[in-house]
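Page 42, continued from yesterday. The earlier attempt failed because a stray header line got pasted into the input along with the sequence. Redoing it now with the clean sequence only.
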Amino acid sequence: MTTLHSGVVLTPEERLARRRLIVHDALSLLTLFLITAVIFALTWLLHRSFEDHREELGRRWKTRGEQALAAGHPQSAIEALRSALAYVPDRGTEIELATALADAGKTTEAMAYFSTLWDSAPGDGTINVQLARLAARQGNEATAVLHYQEALDGTWQGNGYDRRREVRLELANYLLSRGKSDQARTQLLIAAGNAPDDPAIKIQIAGMMEKAGDLDGALGIYRTLSTRHGAPVAALSGAGRTSFELGMYRAAADYLSRTLAQADAETLPEAERDADRGMFATADRIQLLFPAYDLPARLRAERILSLRNTAHARLAACSAAPATAAALGDLVDRWNQLPARLTVSGLEQDPDLEQTIFQLVCDTETVTASACGQPSGDDALILRIAKNPGAVEQP
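This time it went through. Structure tokens are written below.
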């Protein structure tokens, strides 16, 4: 039997041969497809294996670099982090490498690296704080402060609240090192207002306030901490120290006595404990000298008379030198206007005279300190009282 197809008559043998050819071509195409699929799968697996291996190597070098950086070995960190970047380019690793360069003292290279990173992310807090540190190292105060401010306003990975506080305190320290106490106080007030209820952080801020000259602010923090049950000994010591510097000797004696009585007072540095003991002794003695208004009238009169004798002896010793006698003329005239004979009973009955004598005592110690140098003994303590008599008995 024959078939007519496109004008051509095929025999059964030809049809069979044609079918075999079609099947053969189909099998060839299928085989080629399968081979291609296998090659693709093998290539993908090899590529994936290579990528996984490269990522693993990158992670290992990055870990080594981070460990070296944390251990204070920046040069080793630089080598490891560069190897990590060769395997896996990563922004975080680039920041760590730039940090290692800065820690290794390669300031120019680190500055260039961080500047490049900053161009692509000017709001990154980590990059800005590193640029601030590098600018500070180079003595470029304006640039350092600018980048610190940008770090405070920037974005942070992780706990940005804590990182911003740390940066603010770092900025305050930098300003203090540059003699900018007023600007430092501003930053510290913000930090104090935003600080968590953590005694260690608050004590740190209070200590920096002392350095910035904000004794009242520091005392406020120390006082608050000192009212807590189990008050930190550092807070009690700080309250005593700042009270003492402010001339609040009654409060200073109270806080310092509590400090020295604490079981954990030994945790304070030895020099600080010695200073606390010295301040306590001074504050305690000043309270024994000071003629407080709430004292019994006779005891107050006795103290006024004692202060009068001490200051008069100081004046006599100071005016004995011809070079200083002229400068003390007005004081001598005021002393000569006092009654020739003073008694406890007489003073007890004359509060106005008591006040006149006390003011003259304070003025005498102040003027003689300028004319004859700093005094010692009770004269030095009276001079402390003279600087701010109204603060002595403040609780």
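Notes: The first strand starts at residue 3 and ends at 5.
Reminder to self: strip header lines before submitting.
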